Hints:
With about 100 residues, the protein is α+β, with helices and mostly antiparallel strands. It has helices spanning about 20-30, 40-50, 60-70; strands at about 1-5, 10, 15, 80-85, 85-90.
Amino acid sequence: MTVDLATRTVRKAGHAVALTPMEFNLLLALLERRGAVVSRLDLLKEVWGHTSSVLTRTVDTHVAELRRKLEHDASRPRHILTARKAGYRLQREAE
Length: 95
């Protein structure tokens, strides 16, 4: 997968992947952490601008969509991983 920040485009195996603006922002937030776990609350604050502890499945829903679009098998993700009870992290190919 390649991500072009200037054009806000993503390619998987050479093919363009259509991401919504929020999906792209979520992917970018995970990429910027370089494999570190990001909590759902931190993602809500950074990507959606929520300033309080809002109970929502928004992050989970968007992560599921990213997995569907970017993972080879969304039911067995290898790159966008869940850190149980903590949040999500992006596992790069070389890790």
